[in-house]
Amino acid sequence: MRAVLFDMDGTLVDTEPLWWRATEAVAESLGYDLTEADVPAVLGRSAADTAGYLYAVTGGRSTAPGIAADLLAGFHERVARGPEPLPGALELLHALTAAGVPLGLVSASSREIVDLVLPYLGPHRFAVTVADGETPRTKPHPDPYLAAAAALGVDPRSCVAVEDSPTGLASAEAAGCSVLVVPSTVPVLPAHRRRPGPADRGGSGPAPLPGGGLSPRPARHHDEGAGRAPRPARRRTVSPARPVPAGWPRPCR
User: Fold this and answer.
1) Phi first, then psi: what are they for 179, rounded to 5°?
2) pLDDT in tens, 112-162
3) What is the pTM of this model?
4) pLDDT of 102-115, one tens digit each?
5) b vs e for 95-116, b when ≥16 Cβ sit within 10 Å of the residue's Cβ?
6) What does the pLDDT read at residue 53?
């Protein structure tokens, strides 16, 4: 293992309930009530993908770009109040950093959202971060994970990705990464190169959809090391103008 590449939403921080509620509010404004059947099309998806889905199921009552803008505005408002790191997330990041393992953050959220969340995780821990719009294609395509591995100077086939959704898992696997799957509202089937995480995050995993919503987790104290370090790692972001180079290692089958 040369590096560990983490998804953000639902893997390190409890933002998926916030995304669900933002999507729920926009859907209601369009006359559509989200149900559990909509979860795979909403959670773990980019704003553009979710907007396209809502545009289709509401019969084009708005425009896809307009829906995406409303989704991002609602999500930003909720995230700005302070996302909660998931139980064990800060401890794992601290242990890997202390062991000298290079870390990357690979998200389908916008750069604005990623930068809002990073202070709660400790930005010094990630040598590279990749956000939506910074690669030619986002998850479920392999581009974000390929870009993160290239920025770290490692072969993606020597990386472990940590993901919680089928969309992110497909992206990591297509890049050639081995994947550690953590519990999620959206089920992930076992397969080659996938390893299940703990069956339960201390009883704090996402709740089912009671009446169309995800239950928030209880508040936690943040790791006192989050957001500061005496010797911060070099942080790199992936330029939107930089395409994924041809000839990068393809998946192991």
Assistant:
1) -125, 130
2) 999 999 999 999 999 999 999 999 999 999 999 999 999 999 999 999 999
3) 0.70
4) 999 999 998 999 99
5) ebbeeeebbbbbbbbbbebbeb
6) 96
Locate the domains of the chain by residue range.
3-14+83-237, 16-79
Q: What is the pLDDT of residues 146-204, one digit of tens each?
A: 999 999 999 999 999 999 988 999 999 999 999 999 876 656 666 545 455 544 434 33
Q: Can you point out the beta strands (E) in 138-249? A: 159-163, 178-181, 194-196, 236-237
CATH code given to domain 3-14+83-237: 3.40.50.1000
| From 9, 49, 70, 143, active-site residue | 9
Among the options 7, 14, 49, 164, which is catalytic? 7
The answer for 235, left when phi > 0, alpha when psi is -120 to 50, beta otherwise, is: beta
Sheet holding 236-237, edge to edge: 194-196, 178-181, 159-163, 3-6, 103-106, 128-130, 236-237
Nearest to 244 by CA among 170, 151, 131, 132: 151
Maximum CA extent, the chain: 54
Query: Is position 9 annotated as part of the catalytic site?
Result: yes
Number of helices (H), then strands (E), in the chain? 8, 7
CA distance 5 to 162: 6
Enumerate residues 6+ apart whose C-beta is below 8 A from 86.
Answer: 11, 12, 13, 14, 201, 204, 217
Is 143 catalytic? The answer is: no
